[in-house]
Amino acid sequence: DAYHSEVTLRVNGTPRALTVDHRTTLLDALREGLGLTGAKKGCDHGQCGACTVLVDGRRANACLLLAVALDGCDITTVEGVAKDGGDRLHPLQQAFLDRDAFQCGYCTPGQLCSALGMLAEAAAGHPSLATDPDAPPAQGAVPLTPDEIRERMSGNLCRCGAYPHIVQAVEDVIR
Ligand code: FES
Ligand code: FES
């Protein structure tokens, strides 16, 4: 009908076709259409960052995007961050564990995706970092100070206040 369209999203490397109401957000398409509940719905209007995913490698608030507009796009959710079917953590995930960079964990999928997007932004010129878990640590090559990390991650709220540990975890993977 006039209110639904079929779209194909490439989600975590796999093409997924689904029919969406034109008002469906990417967040609802992921969570309810595809059963990928990693991206969280905190506010549903762009204020908390819990829904952050990567769209064509750039971080975005999935609650602010319409799925129908993303036909053919590459989407990475937190479910796609670990490798080998989830058996091998991304170094950033390991750093979050090592640094206790969460308490309730509700913001964590968004924090991880946002941090990966931030690292990719900062890694222009340092492409070894990006989001490749097999890449060696960048050994100080990425110019991000703790203040810059805080500023660039300021769209991701954590009501548990894990911010200092989140910054430490990000620092761990860029040292
Ligand atoms: Fe999208 Fe809060 S749920 S920014
Ligand atoms: Fe609870 Fe961040 S760990 S909101």
Automatic annotation (TrEMBL):
Keyword annotations from UniProtKB, A to Z: 2Fe-2S, Iron, Iron-sulfur, Metal-binding, Oxidoreductase
Iron-sulfur found in the keyword field: yes
Pathway this chain belongs to: Alkaloid degradation; nicotine degradation
Highest taxon listed in the record's lineage: Bacteria
MF (Gene Ontology): 2 iron, 2 sulfur cluster binding; metal ion binding; oxidoreductase activity, acting on the aldehyde or oxo group of donors
Keyword Iron: yes
UniProt xrefs under InterPro entries: 2Fe-2S-bd, 2Fe-2S-bd_dom_sf, 2Fe-2S_ferredoxin-like_sf, 2Fe-2S_ferredoxin-type, 2Fe2S_fd_BS, Aldehyde_Oxdr_Iron-Sulfur, Beta-grasp_dom_sf
Residues of the 2Fe-2S ferredoxin-type domain: 5-81
Pfam families per record: Fer2, Fer2_2
The protein's name: Oxidoreductase
Lineage: Bacteria, Bacillati, Actinomycetota, Actinomycetes, Kitasatosporales
